[in-house]
Design a protein that fits this description.
Helices cover 31% and strands 15% of the residues. It is α+β, with helices and mostly antiparallel strands. It has one domain: NADH Oxidase, CATH 3.40.109.10. The strands form 2 sheets. The chain has a 3-stranded antiparallel beta sheet with strand order 1-2-5, sandwiched between helices. A two-stranded antiparallel sheet has the order 3-4. Helix 1 packs across helix 4 and helix 2 packs antiparallel against helix 4. It starts with a helix and ends in a 28-residue tail after the last strand. The structure holds flavin mononucleotide. The site of flavin mononucleotide (FMN) has 10 residues, from loops.
């Protein structure tokens, strides 16, 4: 599959996963794709923890309320450090966003489905902090996102997206040429 066809095929998958475990080499390949992403001034502010141990996974998913990705055989947690790239400019959000998208695409290439779970775990109830404690994440790192990884049981569905012509133009905003 070409990069563009993988990009077009990727969907946020929120259905059930098959119980098959994800081989370590696949998890590592997805994580390597994440760490290969660009980062502002190459500060590499993003770190990752894959969880495939059944007990740790159960504890981790157990603190997510309401539950998501409950049947995932593995997840990748995304950590960030707010290091300034230069002066007072911190690109940590951009850095981990690029890493996440790379991982979502790598997962599709390897036959898995995933979803970018950030809003759900970083809300005022700070589920992310409970997850970080379970994973022994030290101070200075924030757990900001969780990506389930597994083989989908259902067909992923595509959300409606606005037409290209309403969001992208050539040479001038709103141009019809
Ligand atoms: C920053 C960010 C946070 C997100 N957080 C969540 C989330 O907490 N729960 C969820 O189900 N989807 C979450 N998503 C996935 C979006 O809902 C999804 O990308 C969007 O609906 C478009 O669907 P698509 O990914 O299939 O194109 C998040 C996506 C982004 C970029």
């Amino acid at each position: 599959m070409s990069a563009i066809s993988i990009i077009e095929k990727r969907r946020s998958y929120r259905g059930r996963f098959k119980p098959q475990p994800v081989p370590r080499e696949h998890l590592a390949a997805i994580m390597r794709a994440g760490l290969a992403a660009p980062s502002g001034c190459n500060k590499q502010t993003t770190s990752l923890i894959a969880v495939d141990d059944k007990d740790i996974l159960a504890r981790l998913l157990g603190v997510i309320d309401p539950p998501v990705a409950a049947t995932a055989p593995a997840v990748i947690c995304v950590l960030t450090r707010r290091i300034n790239a230069y002066r007072d400019r911190c690109f940590a959000v951009q850095d981990y966003s690029a890493a996440i998208e790379n991982m979502l695409l790598a997962a599709v290439e390897l036959g898995y489905q995933s979803c970018w779970y950030e809003g759900h775990i970083t809300d005022t109830d700070r589920i992310c902090d409970k997850m970080a404690a379970i994973l022994n994440v030290p101070g200075g790192y924030d757990l900001v996102c969780m990506l389930p990884v597994g083989i989908a049981e259902d067909e992923p569905t595509a959300p409606k997206k606005q037409p290209f012509e309403e969001r992208a133009w050539f040479n001038s905003f709103g141009s019809k040429d």
